[in-house]
Amino acid sequence: MMTEKTPLPAQEMFLLKMGEIVLKGLNRKSFEQRLMGNLQRRLHPYGKFRAYSRQSTVYVEPMNDECDLDGAWEGLKQVFGFSGLSRARSCAKDKDAFVETAKSYLNDRLLAAKSFKVESRRSDKSFPMTSIQLSQYVGGLLAEAYPHLAVDVHHPELTVYLEVRDFAGYVHANPEPGAGGLPVGSGGKAVALLSGGLDSPVACYMMAKRGLALDMVHFFSYPYTSMEAKEKVLELARLVSPYTGRCNVYVVPFTKIQEDLRRNCPEPYFTIAMRRYMMRIAQMIAKETDAHALVTGESLGQVASQTMDAMLVTGAVCDLPVFRPVIGMDKEEIVRIARKIGTFETSILPYEDCCTVFTPRHPKTRPVLSEMLEIEEGYDYEAMCREAVLNAEVVRIRPGAM
Ligand code: ATP
Ligand code: MG
Questions:
Q1: Geometric angle at alpha carbon 100, from 94 and 105, rounded to 5°
Q2: Which residues contact 16 (CB under 8 A, 6 or more apart)?
Q3: Which ligand is nearest to the CA of 200?
Q4: What is the pLDDT of residue 6?
Q5: By the number of CB atoms within 10 A of the CB, which of 34, 181, 192, 196 ranks highest?
Q6: Which ligand places an atom closest to the C-alpha of 196?
Q7: Rounded distance, CA 278 to CA 44, Å?
């Protein structure tokens, strides 16, 4: 991590406000380190930046003119752990430099707003004015220069922030919301079951937001499901990766297991038995890769295999916790998030999923665990699962420039 050193020339840069991390106690340092690492990785495709943190703010400065500031700005909005982001301009630590910088850098916003106030923060205690004096001085001159602006200290449309720090001054205005959440990886790693639908990419986004790093598993039933269907799933993993960070997608061959079930499993139990295989395999991969939970996109009552009883029977093969972040959400709410994170258009492409290839006519909505166990007696599921894991193709996904 770069540290605060000599000042760079006056330029545009970013101030990022840390979110929930600031409530952490003794372990705050490790959350911050994780956040700074994620930040650096996210910035990498956009050029050379230096980033350092002071109190609850991270300062990000471009090191040269080649940096793609707009790209980096969009990328940083997807980094979990920040509650707000501002674009700022640095300036000399001089009261009139603050005025001039505010006028030139924020001119459009000062013209568009009806009311404003100035707020100053000062960490350089050698600066000759107090924060209040600086705010009053700059506020007074801005009010003169923009006579349409009313001063409103309680509910201003525009707040002009001034910061006097060790090596430079900074001017910025109303921050934009950050991605929220906790730094990816700060809560450990989980394995997410990724289908080609709407729900599972949203589930991945939601668990990454709570600080989980993710690997993903996709069950692929070639030739019943096409190569295009597999590409669609990999594309979904890529689309969600600006939020989840780097991950591995395990594409697990599932045809043999499904064909075996079709021969041997009573039709009403087919889907549940298949889902038990999925959970077993995902759990095997989790245990081999130091992941400590599974994530699915199940939503209560959405289909027969997502009733409470069905989830009891599928979950019974797991000893790791199973996180189902969209369990209480309506499709409409899930769609809203899918649109926000950019997975919607790909999710609705009409490719088949292995779940839809062999669909029982009358699936059991209230399966009974003892019946399931009886059906599975004599299945060599351990060997089947191991073989599937051994033959999995691993695809590495890295978020790049957008
Ligand atoms: P999604 O739930 O992603 O919209 P879906 O609704 O088609 O897709 P369901 O049949 O509802 O999928 O399956 C519930 C969950 O099981 C999915 O959210 C996903 O976590 C997992 N799942 C289903 N099919 C697959 C698959 N082929 N590979 C990996 N996971 C799967
Ligand atoms: Mg679903």
A1: 120
A2: 39, 57, 58, 59, 60, 76, 82, 84, 85, 86, 178
A3: 1
A4: 52
A5: 192
A6: 1
A7: 36
- Give the closest residue (by CA) to ligand 1 atom 5: 197
Q: Quick one: tokens of 149?
A: 């602006």
Residue 131: per-residue pLDDT: 95
pLDDT at 8: 52
Please report which ligand is nearest the Cα atom of 278: 1
For residues 250 and 154, what is the distance between their CA atoms, to the nearest angstrom? Answer: 53
Instruction: Give the separation between CA 268 and CA 310, rounded to whole angstroms.
Output: 12
Of ligand 1's atoms, which has the minimum distance to the CA of residue 297?
18
Per-residue confidence (pLDDT) for residue 2, from 0 to 100: 44
Question: Which residue of 191, 231, 332, 355 sits with most ligand 1 atoms within 8 Å of its CB, as the best mutation to test the pocket?
Answer: 355
Q: Phi and psi of 271, rounded to 5°?
A: -65, -40
* pLDDT for res 360: 80
Residue 15, token pair as written in the block = 């101030």
The answer to whether 275 and 281 are in contact (CB under 8 A) is no
Q: Which residue owns the Cα nearest ligand 1 atom 31? A: 195
- How far is the C-alpha of 182 from the C-alpha of 363, rounded, in Å? 39
> Which residue is closest in CA terms to ligand 1's atom 22?
195
Distance CA 142, CA 160 (A): 10
Give the Cα separation of 189 and 178 in Å (integer): 23
Q: Tell how far the Cα of 105 is from the centroid of ligand 2, in angstroms.
A: 47
